[in-house]
Amino acid sequence: MSQDFTKIYQEHYEKVHRLCLGYVNGDTALAKDLAQDVFIKVWEHLDEFQHKSSIGTWIYRITVNTCLLFIRKQKKGTFSITEIAEDKQDVLQEETAHQNRLQQMYACIQQLKETERIIILLVLEGLPQKEIADITGHSYENVRVMVYRIKEKLTKCVSHGI
Amino acid sequence: MEFKDIQNTWQQQSEQTTLPDFEPAKQKLAQLRKQQKITQLILGITGAILIAFFFYIAAYKHSGTLIGMLLLISVIVFRVSIEIISQQKLRKINILLSFVDFKEQLITYYKKRKKLAFTTIPVLLIVYNIGFAIMSYYFYQYLSRGFFYYIIISYLVSFIILFYFIRKQVLNELHILKNLQEE
Questions:
Q1: CB of A47 within 8 A of CB of A5?
Q2: Which residues from B are below 8 Å from A6, CB to CB?
């Protein structure tokens, strides 16, 4: 089991960490703790994995539930939309632009409701809608409609700060 | 900007993520389990001491102090039990459920917590104050004035601090419930 776990940990850590990072508004320390919590749960429940879905889907299910369980002390996090708008004036280099866009994304994701936030994070990871439906327990039709709506909302927010 | 650009930016971000060693997490888990056992043991011993103290008082004092002590001790034991059971219930929610079912279970949990906060907890606080009022009558009779006022002031200060923390916790849980119920 230990070897299986190490392999799973190495293969899935990055994705889990990235999703957690999006959930906690880009706070790297919190995201690391949250990712650690996820893998503690994976480690504890690994023998309960029934191969009904892929291990990736199973880990994402644990990840989104752990994120939801995570009690946020404050709603506002590391980045805010106004902060970034001011910083934008100084953007000269491509890397800074990339970072700013990322921060803007974190801030916009933070504006979404709990379910929307989880769904868009899974979409950003590139998961197919069927898999998102499997993870969340929503119907495929429902996910399709929600994804369309949230995508529009996020694009509008990242582009115009609304 | 299109959503595809946003997605690209997103997926490029963690190229610099380093994989942390998982061993400390395993140790942390073991330590957590140990701490939980120690906490339960301490609470058990505290409860036993309180009950023993109660019987000691009961054997030597009159019915007034007995009732006062009984109310104070019962409220503490009841309050601690509620918190322990509540924490256990939260831990027992199956993490392997689908997001929708898990969220539903969390909402049910926080609704119960809300009910506790607005019904049981105020009753407990009132009962605790009644217990203290009864005890302070005896403190007034048997203790020096200085010591009596010291106890009253200490009680008031600690009650205000306790109330502040209870209020903070309740507001936090209400905030979580509100977030969870947003659709």
A1: no
A2: 22
pLDDT at residue A84 is higher than 60:
no
Q: How many Cα atoms are found within 13 Å in the side-chain-facing hemisphere of B149?
A: 2
Shortest CA distance to A138 belongs to which of A48, A64, A44, A74? A64
Nearest CA in chain B to A10: B19
> What 3-state class would DSSP assign to B155?
helix
Q: Contacts for A48-54 with beta carbons within 8 Å, 24 or more apart? A: A48/B96, A53/A134
How is residue B138 written in tokens?
Answer: 């005896």
Quick one: which of A101, A25, A85 has its CA closest to B2? A101
Is residue B60 very low, low, confident or very high in pLDDT (cuts 50, 70, 90)?
low
Question: A5: which residues sit within 8 A by CB, 6+ positions away?
Answer: A42, A43, A46, B22
Chosen from A95, A114, A147 to mutate, greatest number of chain B CBs within 10 A:
A114
Determine, for residues B180 and A114 on separate chains, whether the beta-carbon distance falls below 8 Å.
yes
List of chain A residues whose C-beta atoms are within 8 Å of the C-beta of residue B11:
124-126
Residues of chain A with Cβ-Cβ distance to B178 below 8 Å are none
In the block, tokens 């801030």 appear at A107
> How crowded is residue B152: how many other Cβ atoms within 10 Å of its Cβ?
14
- pLDDT (average), residues B80-92: 88
Cβ within 8 Å, pair A102-B2: no
**pTM summary value:** 0.80
